[in-house]
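Practice problem 4.
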């Protein structure tokens, strides 16, 4: 049920780590488990319990209305009809996208597309949700709405969420705990408040 910020500079290995933890990439060495499974074995029971949203990648079909992609995802994840309808109705209502789910995805704004990408990722009610820069490129209002939704969804569903972002507003509003990596190594894993207390009193400039 935690909402953890996963931070680091460009090239630190954040997206690579998420891809390994979701089974997209096979690591050259080491081990990892998610929900008791080895991710890159890609077992169906594991894949039905996780989801990944990447701010720079689309899951929805560009030329189809999102609603049709939702129907396909329902079949892929074998979501029962009643649960699918209840989940979809809730997500469409809270994200206020009822007017656009039957519009071709390519005709929508970036903010609308990201809301629909979140719905697509949550239709099967995953236990672990990986969010890789979900607010990248969005205007300030859209960023705030996405953050509010993530916070409310986490409280309501108790879904474990791992969030990467270069926007510190995302991290400050959503995460109690942060993990910072640099060149693939964990350099900090503690409360956000501890990070702020420990590092915000002075700044070091290297000229």
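Answer key:
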């Amino acid at each position: 049920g935690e909402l953890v910020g996963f931070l680091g500079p460009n090239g630190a290995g954040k997206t690579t780590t998420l891809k390994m933890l979701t089974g997209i990439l096979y690591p050259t060495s080491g081990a990892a488990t998610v929900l008791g499974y080895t991710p890159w074995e890609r077992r169906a029971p594991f894949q039905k319990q996780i989801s990944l949203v990447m701010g720079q990648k689309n899951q929805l079909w560009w030329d189809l209305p999102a609603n049709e992609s939702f129907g396909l995802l329902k079949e892929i994840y074998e979501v029962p009809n009643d649960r699918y309808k209840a989940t979809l109705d809730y997500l469409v209502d809270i994200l206020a996208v009822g007017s656009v789910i039957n519009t071709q995805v390519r005709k929508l704004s970036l903010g609308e597309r990201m809301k629909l990408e979140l719905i697509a990722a949550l239709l099967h009610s995953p236990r672990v949700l990986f969010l890789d820069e979900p607010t990248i490129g969005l205007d300030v209002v859209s960023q705030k709405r996405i953050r509010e939704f993530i916070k409310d969804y986490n409280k309501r569903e108790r879904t474990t969420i791992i969030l990467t972002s270069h926007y510190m507003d995302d991290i400050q509003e959503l995460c109690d705990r942060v993990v910072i990596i640099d060149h693939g190594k964990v350099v900090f894993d503690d409360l956000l408040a501890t990070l702020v207390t420990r590092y915000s009193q002075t700044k070091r400039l290297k000229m």
